[in-house]
Amino acid sequence: MLKGILLAVASMALLPMAAMAAENDGRRIKVKVTAASHVATATFLDNATTRALITRFPLTVPMMDRYSRELVYRFPEALPANETTTSGYEVGDIVYWTPRHSFVIMYAQNGERISNLQKIGRIDSGVEVFARTGDTNVTFELLKE
Predict the structure, then answer these.
(1) What gap in Å lies between CA 134 and CA 65, rounded to an integer?
(2) pTM for this structure?
(3) Which residue in 37, 43, 48 sits closest to 138, CA to CA?
(4) Torsion-angle region of residue 99: left (phi > 0), alpha (psi -120 to 50) or beta?
(5) What is the pLDDT of residues 16-72, one digit of tens each?
(6) What is the distance between the alpha carbons of residues 96 and 106, in angstroms, rounded to a whole number?
(7) Rounded to 5°, angle at Cα 66 from 65 and 70
(8) Whole-angstrom distance, CA of residue 123 vs CA of residue 110
(9) Average pLDDT, whole number, for the chain?
(10) Where are the alpha helices (DSSP H) in 48-141?
(11) d(CA 94, CA 43)
């Protein structure tokens, strides 16, 4: 019985490392994000939505400041999104909301859970500047590794 308990404890200790390893298995795509005169970098996940987006890079879109929490651009057509969930978000998340084809940078938190949300990536640092830009053009470009 003691052996079984020790195995269970050992496997629980490995769970966080296994989760981190699984998270890093996917390819990460580095992106330069320019809003007004502010430059930030972001790391995009490798998924169908990201792949559709980067075919358009460099991409400059007029993003609207909405709900005191996000910058939004609504594509006229749907992007592929095969990993949508109902979930919360973190400040700095870049997401795609499928019902309105919305490409979104989340710069503030209100605790809301949102349905039909596809995670795209995250702003690496400096997300607070997006709270001060208002409606603005934002440019997304691939960074060379």
Answers:
(1) 5
(2) 0.81
(3) 37
(4) alpha
(5) 323 323 343 468 999 999 998 899 999 999 999 999 999 999 999 999 999 999 999
(6) 11
(7) 75
(8) 18
(9) 85
(10) 48-54
(11) 9
